[in-house]
Every structure is written in structure tokens, then in C-alpha cells.
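Bumping with the actual sequence this time:
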Amino acid sequence: MDFQGSSSAPAPFSAPPAPSYAGLGLGSIGARVRLGEIAGYYFSLEGSLRAASHSAETYLDMRDFLQVDARVQMFHSLETWGFPAFLDAQLGYRSRGQNGDEIRADLTFGVRPQPAVLLMAQSFTAIAPWPSTASSFAAQKFEVSGVYDLNRTFSVQLGFVYAPFGVNAPAERGIVSAVWARF
């Protein structure tokens, strides 16, 4: 063994290479309907349809090519450190995850330190209370990102996602990017 820790002999207990995938992944489309407002807290109902490429299904949280996602959302505007901010909390149901139907709980905190800049911290929780196999499932994912308003219609988002906790859940780390359109 040399001073950098290298050895000419292979390690006796080396792990096989981790599976990986590069290609098209997941797309979704949905709609949200406002339910009402109580003392500055806004409530809405959202439904969406998610679809994955057949090659990507294996690596995503999907059992089938299509999923339905339905959720109730609470939104509240506030001020943090003198900057406009918001809190978004969602509770939902998603069909046909890798381990059965799932309960979803998502939290987002956003602050605008500049008029064209939005900074967000997000938490995504998924639990399969009725697993379709003998194994249970729970996952916790965190995301931090920034959104820059290009103009009144379009914005771009860039961030990092990390999934440190889970039971029978994939370990995720990666870059997140998106284009937002207001209409």
C-alpha cells in the first residue's frame, strides 16, 4: 500500500457498482382550485397526473407509468427579517408508489431578499401506511433552491436536493432545475 492508501491488490470486500440512470425521467401536469381564506391563511385543492418514461420507472418512486396526486394546501404570507416571505404546507395522497399508495406531507418556506430573487427551503415526506409488499416505506427529502425572475412571466430555478432519511427509500442527491411560467 502506498501513502495515498492505494493498493495494487483488489479489496477483498468491494461492493458492486451502484445502479445509475441517465435519461428522461418524470413529468407532471395538474391544476389547483382555491377553496377559501381564513384570517390571511389561504386554502386550495390540487390534483395532478404524473408520468415517467418506462426506463426511469425503476429509479423513481413509481410502481406504474402513471400516478395520481391529490392534496390540500395551506398558504400564508408573512414578513421575515424585513423581507416578504411565505409558508406553504401540503397534505396529500399519491397512488401507486413503489411500496403502495402514499401519504405525502410537504413544507416550503420562501423569502425574497430582492424583488427578483426567491430563496426556498423545502421538506418532502412520504409514508406508505398500507404497503403493497411486506416491507414498509418512509422517506424524507430536503431541498434548497433559488429562483430568479427573468421577467414578469418567466423565472428559472436552481437548487440541490438531498434525501438523508428513509426506510426502503432511495438515497438521493442531486441538482434541481426548473423554468416557471406565470399566467
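The C-alpha cells above came from a reply further down the thread. The longest strand covers residues 66-80.
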